[in-house]
Amino acid sequence: MPFPNSSDLSPASFILASIPGLEAAHFWVAIPLCSVYIMAVAGNCAVLFIVKTEPSLHVPMYFFLCMLAAIDLALSTSTVPRVLAFYWFNTREISFSACLIQMFFIHTLSAIESTILLAMAVDRYVAICHPLRHAAILTNATTVKIGLAAMARGVLFFLPLPLLLLPLPFCRSRELSHSFCLHQDVMNLACANTTPSVVYGLTAILLVMGLDALLICLSYLLILKSVLRLASWRERLKVFSTCIAHICVVLAFYVPLIGLSVVHRFGKDLVPLVHIIMGNMYILVPAVLNPIIYGVRTKQIQRRILNLIHISNNRTAQ
């Protein structure tokens, strides 16, 4: 049996997936994608600015929201500009090292976001079930420590993913099924035993995203149990309504993540367009929806945005 040559063992680059049947229209397809990316950047920057300048929002829940905004900015910026360059300038190739770096950032930032969502669920649990101890338990210093722990957890769990792919030979097609690099996508192109990479990747996902999702559900079961003890339905709805924004943000993160995982696991026979759409949703849906959800549900953010619009209109009129 012939051995793969040296270029096969260490590929210089991978080929990003194009939209089948729409290759000639990539320029126009990129315009709505760019618009959505601009919305995500503007929305998350607005959240960071408003929380920074609004003293009433200097509480753990909104500090965690700022962390989410920063993560979404980093995650979308690590992928979308490269996708736009591909669509507009036909630069389909991405170097092997750049692909591994992008993969590391995507998975690590997703893990950090999952941990922050869990911290926000714990914040809601303490605020509702132990309101008198909330200020003592979740101080600003504790919030910073949780953010640093989330970063360390993401890096420690997902740094091995690209390292496990480094020694693998790649002698199959170099074309990915997404417009950016994901671990399972790159791993499937290897022509060697990928069992260690498969096992570690699955273990990392279960111990981070899986465990976080389980603990978030547990937090809300305890919250629901506490809420149902209240005397009237009006009080129950008033208390539980403080959790609606966080529940929506959790769904915006986990639904695309689960959908993408299902497509990777069971969708090998699906048309390539499904993989591309699910990949883009995984990157952009949380980044776009999170600022909108908290903007709609938070009166202080609404007032601040209206004030900024009013000031901008006055300056334009002058």
- Give the rounded overall mean pLDDT: 88
Q: Please, how many helices?
A: 14
CATH class value: Mainly Alpha
CATH architecture grouping: Up-down Bundle
* Low-pLDDT residue intervals, each spanning 5 or more residues: 1-9
**Percent of residues in beta strands:** under 5%
Family: Belongs to the G-protein coupled receptor 1 family.
Domain G-protein coupled receptors family 1 profile: 43-294
Transmembrane segments: 27-50, 62-88, 94-122, 143-166, 198-223, 244-267, 273-296
Subcellular location: Cell membrane; Membrane
Describe the structure.
With 318 residues, the chain is mainly α. The chain has a single domain, classed as Rhodopsin 7-helix transmembrane proteins (Rhopdopsin 7-helix transmembrane proteins), CATH 1.20.1070. Helices cover 75% and strands 2% of the residues. It contains 14 helices and two strands. A two-stranded antiparallel ribbon has the order 1-2. It is globular and about 65 Å long. It starts with 5 loop residues before the first helix and ends with a helix. The N terminus is likely disordered.
Short description:
This protein is 75% helix and 2% strand. It has 318 residues and is mainly α.
